[in-house]
Every structure is written in structure tokens, then in C-alpha cells.
Request: fold
Amino acid sequence: MLRLPKFEVKNPATVEEAVAMMMEIHGEARFLAGGTDLNPNMKHGLFTPERIVALGGIEEMFGVGFDESGNARIGAMVTLAQVEQHPDLRRAFPALCQAAKLVSSPQLRNMGTLGGNVMLDTRCQWYNQTYFWRNALGYCLKKDGSKCHVIEGGSKCVAAASNDTAPALMTLNAELEFATTSGRVRMPLADLWQADGIWNKKIPHTDLLVALHVPKPAAGSRGAYGKLRDRGSIDFPLFGIAVRLDFAADGSISDAALCAVALQARPWPLKKAAELLIGTHPGQASFNDAVEKVAMLAAKQCRPMPNIPGDHEYRHLMVPVYTRRTLHAAAAGEGPVHHI
Reply:
């Protein structure tokens, strides 16, 4: 039986109290949102914090709101199920809601939070195992060891970012609001990441994600999220791609954004590929030709590694397939693309 280690629990009522509680302990401490990722990781011995700072009592971190300009503020403690089902979010940010809908299972989406998914730890099939399994293997770069089992002789951890909502939020130019020991800061989500599978964020564990700010989309903007996985629920992505398409008055694409996930330690924007779509008209040959070029360019740029379960060569073959399908789904205003 896998059991949780011993720890104390703190229940702050404000954001400032939560940050202070993280800083006052000399040992390791962790924030607890929905717990759907932290709890199993603690049972596997990946984290053994002396203190858990539970965020469920902080009212500021809940709720969805829009200002007069149509910009959204989503509390970090809003559940994935609430994001998926929120009618205003579904109209404004379809790719985000589709991505939230494809995370895990209904039960876990009812507990898991949007903030927790954005701040999800990187994953690797050599890391996300029990302590006994990892001990028998001699551990790895990410935890307790000095050897990378993905890349022979590798000196850098390549555990993969596997958070479905992050690429969708990046195509939407979302910003993050953090509470730190020196006050509140806001930063573009695209600036959060670093290419380090051990810790792929540029901020410390003690900074608390309070809310996500998503600007009003362009008129007529459409989006979609495509996810490759073995089963129709539960699984983390073997490959994921988010698409945003903005349209001019004549029906042509005026701007586009693509972002992939489950490849390396950070979500991967496909900027050059997105530029190929600008000026094309969905439903016409120009768009279909551009989609094929984008799919092929994505296949060149996205090279899956054997860092997560699933054959990496098969995952690579699916990159252009899912890129193509998700682009067509976004252009048509259709639902999420996923493998069952």
C-alpha cells in the first residue's frame, strides 16, 4: 500500500498568509490546490514536504469574472470542470475549455484546478514511479540520481510538460498573477517556462499563483485543442496542440497561434508554422495548402523523446495528423480533437 508521508497542514485565509506560511518553515513545503497530482506524487516519494499549505479557504482565488473590456480573470482555484462548463469562457476561449475537458476524468476534473494544471510538475516514465521502482533503477536526474534514462549520457533533465491547459492559454496570450514575498507580480504565461525538466518554471516553489488573466479575443476568433492519448479519459497527453485563429472582415486569417505540449520540459510555441496561415481563407485551397505545410513543419520542429509512456516514433507520426485535424476543427468552430 502506498501511504502519504507525515506532514502538518496549514489553512490560510488570505494569499498573504499562504505565502508567509511557506516561508516560515526551514524544511520543504508545498501548496495544495486540488491535490490530484500532489497526493500521488507524495505517495511515490517524489515530494516529502514537512508542511502542506492548503488553499481551499482563500476566497480571492476562486471565481470567474470579466471586466468592461471583456478581459477575463480566472481564479487559480477554479476547477477544471468549472472552466469546461462555464458558458462565457466557452464562448470566448473555446480551446481553453476544450483542453480542460480533456484533462483526466470527470472525478479528477471536479477536484483539479486550473492553477494546478498550469503549475503541474513535469512528467517522465522513469520518474513518475514508486520509490521502490526508482530505487531499483538507481534513480534519475530529476530525483535522487545522476543518470538520465531518456538520453544516454544526458546531463539535463528532459521530463516533459504535460499540462493540457498551458498551450491553450499561451495561444490566448494569458498572464499569470503571482503573490511573492515582495508583493504581487504579473507575467505573461509564455515567460514562465525554462528548459529544465527538474523545475521548468522561472519562479520559486514559494510563489503562489493567484489568478490567470486572459485578454478579450479578437472578434470572430476561433480555437481548438487536440490531444493524443491511449484512452478516452484519465491519460496525460502523448502529444497536445492548441490553435487560435483570428479572422479579418473578408474572412481571411489575420493572425494565428499554435502551441504544442508533451514534448519537452516546456510548452512549445510554433510561431513560424502559425505565420503560414495568415492571409488564407478556410474552405479554400489556400488554407488547405497552408495546413499541409504547417503540419509538415510541426513534424520537423516537434520531436518526441522516450520520456513519457507511448512509443515516441508513433507519437512523432501523429504530430502532423493532430496538427492538421486541430487546425480544421478550429477553422470550423468544432469541438476538441482526441484519440479514442
Observations:
- The CA atoms of residues 117 and 163 lie 6 Å apart.
- The chain has a mean pLDDT of 96.
- The longest helix spans residues 312-332.
